Amino acid sequence: MKIVVIGAGPAGLTAAYELLTKGTDIEVIVLEESNCFGGISKTVNYKGNRMDMGGHRFFSKDERVNEWWQNMLPMQGARSKDDLLLERSISLAENGPDPEKTDIVMLLRRRVSRIFFDSKFYDYPISLKPATFANMGLLNTLKVGFSYIGSVFHKLPEDNLENFYINRFGRKLYSMFFEYYTENLWGRHPSEIDASWGAQRVKGLSIIAILKDVFGKIFSKKNRKVETSLIEEFKYPKLGPGELWEITADKIKELGGTILMNSEVVGIHKDVQNEQGKEIVTGVRYIQDGKEFDIKADYVISSMPLKDLIVGMNDVPSDVKRVAEGLPYRDYMTLGVLVSKLKIQNKTQMTTVGNIVPDCWVYVQDRSVKMGRFQIYNNWSPYMVADLENTIWIGLEYFCQEGDDFWNKNEEEFAKVGIEEMVKIGIIESKDDVLDYHMEKVKKAYPAYFDTYNEIDKVVDYINTIDNLFCVGRNGQHRYNNLDHSMVTSFEAVKDILEGVTDKSNVWNVNTEKEYHEEKESKNEEKQK
Fold first, then answer.
1. Are 115 and 135 in contact (CB under 8 A)?
2. Is 38-59+74-121+232-239+329-447 a domain of CATH 1.10.4030.10?
3. In what order do the strands lie in the sheet with 2-6?
């Protein structure tokens, strides 16, 4: 049996590896458009300074995923470089590898993400700490409170993302922390975006959830259930997320799989070949080095953008094609900036090398700049930076549309904008603090929830009539999946193929519950005082 896997990102490589380790007599061929592994989860190495495209925390409630990661990259059994420099203790795995001696290791990292608004840091998700109220000031705090009370007694119809946020946080808090960032990310006002995006990403997070947590702590409620929108620790490959997929690709080759790089899929061949007269996929067309090739397939597992998959397919019903062609995406540019020092100060109790701010990434809520977020790679892994003790490696993130004026900027033009904005909002004192920079662009980074998205079921229903075609991953399903969910779609697809199952509902149902995977219910393990 020959199976073609389209894409060498997390979903594609997971599918290929699962097929080769769980199946027998299967020929697996992976076609990847670019020259690197990992898709948006790739790691870019620029002069020894590594960039994580978008920031990827490794966390999952699915034990299959956790076991898979452990198999590829065992958890650290000794302290990493920054922990040693700071004499900081962390949880270590018994007999785990030493990150100072090997690269094949998964680190345990502290999760810190905050919002930068009005030149002040706010916890993300918003907390009810005294510092939050001090930052807001009395007038804004009162406005937030009364606005939230109004939203409790007057619920808006949740037919768009704006109403979804207002119902949970009130209009004032929404306007402060959600409205501009969301519009900057998607290029559309939240009132134009489907509410299902919020239901998936924000999950149970709300003022009510925060209040429950606060009062649970005050009254030391035993075995209380805590909704945490974001986890406090996460796993992370020593050399960034791309390391995991480079290792996976090597294992696929060792198992006899074939991976063809720089191979862009441009066509999916279908034919009517079974007793019921149903269509099946018979092969794939791809371009490599300017030449076209056709390859036959018994099954195709696709993680390529759903839009491109349908457009490249023959004999697609016109209405299905119309919906697919209208599916929107948001593209992404990042500027890695190496600096000698930061202007923003670490006012937390958390220790860091060089006493820099402890954040992994920061959401920028400043309407005077286009910057959406910035990452501090030093805090993701000390091994992401060539000179950890003397430099800070920052990733400035910008959202745009392929082909627009911003996307078309060259590296020097992009750097000018990014560095000027760093100075403007106070990340650095002046452009003289910049030592070096590097630009990266990622197409179709974020599948969007507007335009023809509300008709996507027409596309899904059509694909489900083709028994030997499975769509997996973020772009493959046009769903804002996180890393673990993308992998699980491949687990399910491979399971169906090996068992001869043609009902793909289990594949499409991954991450359709209205929960965000990083939120979890946990028992309070604090000792009663």
1. no
2. no
3. 258-260, 27-31, 2-6, 299-302, 469-471
Report the alpha-carbon distance of residue 168 to residue 443 in Å, rounded: 32
Answer whether 16's CB lies under 8 Å from 255's CB: no
CA distance 179 to 17: 41
- Do residues 295 and 29 touch, judged by C-beta distance below 8 A? yes
Q: What's the burial of 18, exposed, middle or buried (CB within 10 Å: 0-12/13-18/19+)? A: buried
Domain ranges for the chain, please list them: 2-35+261-327+452-508, 38-59+74-121+232-239+329-447, 125-229
Strand boundaries in 247-328, DSSP class E: 258-260, 263-272, 279-288, 291-296, 299-302
| Biggest alpha carbon–alpha carbon distance for the chain | 73
CA 307 to CA 510: how far, in whole Å?
Answer: 20
Span 2-35+261-327+452-508 CATH architecture = 3-Layer(bba) Sandwich (3.50)
Positive/negative CA dihedral, 158, 516, 222, 217: negative
Q: Following DSSP, what letter does each residue of 5-32 receive, concatenated?
A: EE--SHHHHHHHHHHHHH-SS-EEEEE-
pTM, two decimals, is: 0.91
Write out pLDDT tens, residues 96-117: 999 999 999 999 999 999 999 9
Average pLDDT, the chain: 90
Model pLDDT for residues 337-380, shown as the tens digit of each residue: 999 999 999 999 999 999 999 999 999 999 999 999 999 999 99
